[in-house]
Amino acid sequence: MAEVEMDPELALGLFEEGATLVLLGVPEGTELGIDYNTWQVGPRFRGVKMIPPGLHFLHYSASNRPDRGGEVGPRTGVFLNLKPRDIRLARWDGAEEDLDFSNSQEEEVERVRAGLRDLDRFLGPYPYGTLRKWVSLTDRMTEEGVRSLQPLSGKICAFAQVLPELALRHTQDRLEQNLPSYDSECHSMQEGLERLPKMKQRPGTEMRFSEIPKQNYPEGATPAQITRCSMDLSYALQCVIDRYYKQDPQQILGELQFAFVSFLIGNVYESFEHWQKLVNLLCRSEEAMQRHLSLYLNLISVLYHQLGEIPPDFFVDIVSKDNFLTSTLQEFFSFAAGPDVDATLRKRAEKFKSHLTKKFRWDFEPDPEECAPVVVELPEVVTLD
């Protein structure tokens, strides 16, 4: 990790009040980072110092013999809520290729604290140049919110950890489940796929996102209500708020940020899919814009910072798939321009629309053909004389 030039007085204050991560035994060549920054671990690395108090995301990927051009493994991350002068101690578990925070004893942490100045030369400073960007992506997230959304294991893994639903180790086990034995001849790819064991995600490693209703309308709804709830998702959004965020509806923005960061930095594709669902739910809820004004004023700010971080290499291709963002935001801007919408929200939405049009050259104007009435051709009626 490269040293960062910093005002000496500021550096001293950060050293005294900032948090410290002491990470022992991390193999040389491991890819490790915190928040928006990633490095390759060198031989002297022992951790990160001068970390500003607050919520941070530590992430790392094991490397397979980097001295011989080995590949980097999938990313694992953990959210940490750090206090002023906090010290967190973890050791590298070579068998699991993972950082273990669980065995840190209070006495050992205090010994580390007492010898912190001697350890200083082995600690890399937190890169403050990207702190503002990190805060803008996480300012709605809370420690409690993260705890409720992340896996019970506390670890966020880029690839799902799976186990076979049934332990079919022997031929007899497969015969009892009416499955062919492994040594029998396979005649097609489909047959080969059917022989593979069914997998399930390892308990405790699943993300715990809010469940979005599959049915957008209330039970017993009339056809007119079903049509309205399909065009305006406010009912489904209110169901999510009532179930998960009744005390503070704005906390759904924390979940939106958690999903975005888990994908952007944690590389969890499931998180992108959930972010996409939340954006769709929030942007297509016209009635909710009047009911939850402050939520929507802050939603624009959250989306502004998130869309500003779309990397041009891979993320923009995913976002552009099926024109998801432009079509979703087109509806949002259309709803926000309505006469019953608060003037402040209407003005802020218009500025956001202009910003996106200028930056990405996205066209949010509706296609005239989409607005034209749909002509339904009825089948010819044959009468019997």
Structure description:
The chain is α+β, with helices and mostly antiparallel strands. It folds into three domains: 8-138, Substrate Binding Domain Of DNAk, Chain A, domain 1; 162-201, no CATH class; 223-370, Aar2, C-terminal domain-like (Serine Threonine Protein Phosphatase 5, Tetratricopeptide repeat). 42% of the residues lie in helices and 14% in strands. The protein has 17 helices and twelve strands. It has helices spanning 8-17, 106-114, 116-119, 131-138, 143-149, 171-176, 189-195, 223-231, 234-244, 251-264, 269-283, 286-291, 293-307, 315-320, 324-336, 343-360, 368-371, and strands spanning 19-24, 31-34, 37-40, 47-51, 54-61, 76-82, 87-93, 98-100, 123-125, 156-157, 162-164, 199-201. A five-stranded mixed β-sheet has the order 8-7-1-4-9. Strands 3-2-5-6-10 form a five-stranded antiparallel β-sheet, with no helix packed on it. Strand 7 (87-93) and strand 8 (98-100) form a beta hairpin. Helix 10 runs antiparallel to helix 11. The longest helix is centred in the last third of the chain and has 18 residues, at 343-360. The radius of gyration is 26 Å and the shape is globular. Residues 371-379 and 381-385 have low confidence and may be disordered.
